[in-house]
Structure formats: structure tokens, C-alpha cells
């Protein structure tokens, strides 16, 4: 098991490096990606039989290059031009030139990630392509994680690659004037992958839990390649500080345990320490960004040994900064809880009233969940129960629905 | 986000179509299915048997009892259903509106619950 696990980790780590070398030489993401997938399958079989080779990266690059040449040869009659380009270097030479453990692959992985998060793609295509081309996940694994048939996922990957080709994406970093926007898109995709995996950790959801560790792994890689980017630090910190609470956030039956009721002794102190240190470094370095602020809020929660020790004025101050950096009614919902903890439930409810007609949240279950929470704090049981019931009916998340129903029935069962 | 889209109808409705209209609608449904399988948004599409062939199962005191016909007294029955997986609700509604029988009767769009959730 350990050996297979090591091989799997290694293959995932090597995938973007090898793909990067191929795309840099050949220029076509779609064909190169297919070749790398074939090489990954061969590696699975070969390494399982004979063990991990001495130079795994060179091995994978050599096989992927051969597969690429096979593919190009197959199309040679139609596309002689590409054939000429590629035949210049025999595979062994390609493999030697890029060596094992050399530094030249670093930017390749990053360029590949920017390519997969190309603005011509929809967010779900960006996620899919990133998991496959940068993450090295198979179509089957990605399909399982998103509960769609493998054929559908295969189709999505093919379409995403076709769109990249049509958009004329080239293998290079985005030009300086686009870099900020493109980096934001990359962060957003990593954040979405993390969130997609951020589910109950029991039973059938194991595939989704893997998305969370994959998002953390990829974000670590981006952070390693661009250690000076404060928002990447903030994003990684946010993921670690959230992941740290995973063991406490669901019961063994898969029920959601809210932050205030979690057994904090189950929290992962190593992840918290690393997350706190990253977010502190990011905040002192600047420029400020929304992931850093969300991470800072998560850090304040994670550093409280008991829920009663939570530094709510600090949480509130951070939410107010977040509101200035990136105004967003969803963040206002969370800020209303902090306002209620510092200034009392009526003040929190008054803040909620300012966004309840905002179309972006007016029908969102979290508006009703927060209102229910604040009404319950204020002692208005009947109204609180009703708000939680509405929230339960509006959410599309099964664990949330169960939790919100439970809150509603507990509150309504209390004697008035 | 996944959605289940349900198409309702009954014998009177299906029989009210002249053969050429029915034939064209079926061809349009085939084209619809093909188009959205290719866009990787249609996960599955099923036509259902007539309500005469539907059965209802009830277990009482541990004993299953099977009766003919659908559970609910209704004038219209589920005739087909499909499952979508698309970016958002707006896109699901757009696809539902393309379904040929949306022009004759209504189609229903239901969100399918998922397992991911925010921490509360």
C-alpha cells in the first residue's frame, strides 16, 4: 500500500512537470495531455511490477514523448508540419536534456496551471482541466469526485482542450497587463476545487475529500513557485486553517457539527500552526487581499481553545476590512454574526436587513440560517425556528439540510 | 449543479398530436439529447412506460403490497425525465426551455441535493 501510495503521489507531482516540457516543445496542450495520460497508465502498470524506476521523471518523460511521437506519426499524413517539428529530437535526448530534479520544470507547472485556468473556459472546465493536466488525476477519478458518468467527464475534458486550442492559448506566462486577473482566476479555481471537496468526510464522500487535499497540494505548489505572492499565501493559509477543523466538523454519522459546537481537541494543531504563520507573513508583507482576510478570520477562530474565548471584536474588525477590500453580500451575512457577538443580536439583525433585498442573497439559505441564529440569540424562538426551516428548505446541500432541520426542530421543541 | 427535469403528460395530450407533429417532436428530442450529451451537460435521459405499467409498493407490518398504477391520483403522469449537470440554475432553465415538449406542456426543473456544504 505504501509503495503504491508513493508511486501515486510521485506520478501526480511529475504530471505537470512532464506535460510542461512536452507543451513547451510541441505547443499543443490537447495532444500532449493525451500522451501524458497514456504514459501515466503505463507507469501504473510498469512501476507496480518492477518498482519505481531510479529516474522516475526521465522515465515518464521518455514514455510520454514516445507516445506523443506515436500520435503525431499517426496523424503525419494529415499534419506533416507537426511531424517535422517534433522529429528534431529523439526521446532519449529530450529526457536527458531536461534531466531529473532540474529546476527548469518549475515555471512549466505554473504556466500549465495558467493555461488550464484560461478565461475562454467556464469555471467547471477550468477545474476539470486543472485536476487532469496539473493534478494528474484520471478521468475516472474526476468523474467519481463530481458524481458524473466517466463518459461525460471524458467529453468535458475533450471540449475544454479543444477550447484552449481554439482560443489560441500559447505556452507562456500571461502578459503583465493580464497577470493580476489571470492569477485571480487561478486562485479561484483552486478555491473552488477545495470547496467541492469540503464535504462530510465519511463513506461515499471519500472521493470528494480527495479534492480538498488535491487543492492544498496544488496551492502549495503555486506557493512554492511564487513564494512572494501574498494572496497565494493567504489562500493556502485559508485552506489549511479550514482543513484543520475537518476531523471535528462532522459526526461519524456524517452530520454537520457547527463551529461553535466542535470538539476543538480534534483540530489539527500542525495545520493551524502552519496556517497562522502563513497568514501572518502574508498580512505583514501585503498587498492585502480577500483570501488573507478570510484566512485571518479562520485563524482567530482556530486559535481560541474554547468557543467562549473567541476574540469577536477582532473577527468583526477583519470582516469590516474584508467588506472594504471586496464588498460582497455573502460576507455581510457572516459579518452580521460577528456584529451580534460584539454589539448584540438586534445590531446583527439590523445589518442583515440591509442586504435582504439584495438579489444575490435574498433567496440564499444562508441569509435565513444567519437570521435564525440571531433570532435564537435574541430569544425569539418561534421566528428563529421558522427562519431555520426556510433555510433548510432552500439549501441544495444534503448535510446542511439535515443540520438546519435539526436546529429548527430543537428550537421549536423548547418550551416558550 | 445537478438538476432533474421532469416531463409530464397523459394519453390525451400525446394522442392530440397529428402524426407529423409527433414525428418531428421525437426527432427534435433526439437532436436535443445528442446536443446536450455532446456539451457534457446531459448525464442521463429516460422515457418512462405508460401509467398502466407503473406499480406502487407499500410495506405495511413488514409485508409488501403491490398495486397497479402510480401512487398519486393524477390526470398527468411523468412521461420522461433527464438529469442535467450545468454551471448554474439559469443554464438549467435555458436547456429546459429548449426541450421540444416545453412548447406543448410544462417541464419541471428540480435541484438535486449535493454533499458539499459550508461550515456553519
3D structure, described in words:
The complex is a heterodimer of chains A (416) and B (120). Chain A is mainly α. Chain A has 21 helices and no strands. Chain A has helices at 2-26, 29-50, 56-74, 80-87, 91-98, 105-116, 123-134, 139-145, 150-166, 176-196, 206-225, 230-243, 246-249, 269-285, 290-302, 312-325, 329-343, 345-353, 365-377, 381-394, 398-413. In chain A, helix 15 runs antiparallel to helix 16. The model of chain A is unreliable at 89-104 and 200-204 (pLDDT under 50). Chain B has three helices and six strands. Chain B has helices spanning 11-15, 19-38, 89-98, and strands at residues 2-9, 42-47, 55-60, 63-68, 77-85, 107-111. With 120 residues, chain B is an alpha+beta fold. The relative contact order of chain B is 0.31. Chain B starts with a strand and ends in a 9-residue tail after the last strand. Classes of the chains: A mainly alpha (416), B alpha+beta (120). The interface between A and B is medium-sized, with 37 and 20 residues.
Helical fraction of chain A equals: over 70%
Element order of chain B: H for helix, E for strand: EHHEEEEHE
Largest sheet report of chain A: none
Poorly predicted sequence stretches spanning 5 or more consecutive residues of chain A: 89-104, 200-204
User: What share of residues are in beta strands of chain A?
Assistant: under 5%
Helix content of chain B: 25-40%
- Total strands of chain A: the figure is 0
Overall shape of chain A: it is elongated
Query: Biggest sheet of chain B: strands side by side, in what order?
Result: 2-5-1-6
Mean pLDDT of chain A: 87
Indicate the radius of gyration of chain B in whole angstroms.
17 Å
Helix vs. strand class of chain A: mainly alpha
Give the SSE order of chain A as H and E letters: HHHHHHHHHHHHHHHHHHHHH
* Count of beta strands of chain B: 6
- Total number of helical segments of chain B? 3
Sum up the overall morphology of chain B in one term: flat
What is the number of helical segments of chain A per DSSP (H or I, 4+ residues)?
Answer: 21
What do the pLDDT scores of chain B average to? Answer: 90
Tell me the greatest interface. A-B, 37 and 20 residues
Radius of gyration of chain A: 24 Å
